[in-house]
Amino acid sequence: MASRRIATLSRKTAETDIQLTLALDGRGTAKVDTGIPFFNHMLELFARHGLFDLELKAVGDVDVDYHHTVEDVGLVLGSAIREAVGDKLGIRRYGFFLLPMDETLARVVVDLSGRACLAYEVVAPTMFVRDFNLILVKEFCRAFSNALGCNLHVTLLYGEEPHHIAEAIFKGLARALDMATQIDPRAADSLPSTKGSL
């Protein structure tokens, strides 16, 4: 069995201070503290459903707004996955998932192409879960896609309850990434690209 793919990163700015360790080939354990309870919940779901082991401590200027913390966590998490995947030999590259969450259905598709692109089509009837604005999910996805270097397509097919909408997106992202980062034993020593590079 190949060694576990793990990354440990830190990022400190005037707005946030983040330490993160991620194991791609984990069991779905999470120890998360961002100072934003709802965001903690989403990241715990992300780890569990992707079977990623995640340790994350983020201190940010949440007294000003949640934006900087959510965006910067997206940057660090995307960077960690990029580092943990390494040379990308043998990965499946593409991943997709349709995630039902009660009345909600979200589609998440990812390509670990090395090219950052976010296509995000989510319109929710209500944009807040308590004081957490769902537009921050888009900002997280944009930062994550940029840092990882992936095509990320997120579509809300339908849904009403904002908690369910965010949950479906984070769980769907986790499942799609789990698929994309898995090693295909038939091609474990080659890149999934006809160009010879990703």
Description:
With 198 residues, the protein is an alpha+beta fold. The protein has one domain: Imidazole glycerol phosphate dehydratase, domain 1 (Ribosomal Protein S5, domain 2), CATH 3.30.230. It contains four helices and ten strands, in the order βββαβαβββββαβα. The chain has helices spanning 37-50, 67-85, 135-148, 162-181; strands spanning 6-12, 16-23, 30-33, 53-60, 94-101, 104-111, 117-121, 128-129, 132-133, 151-158. The strands form three sheets. The protein has a four-stranded mixed sheet, with helices on one face. Strands 5-6-10-7 form a four-stranded mixed sheet. A two-stranded antiparallel ribbon has the order 8-9. Helix 1 (37-50) runs parallel beside helix 4 (162-181). The longest helix is centred in the C-terminal third of the chain and has 20 residues, at 162-181.
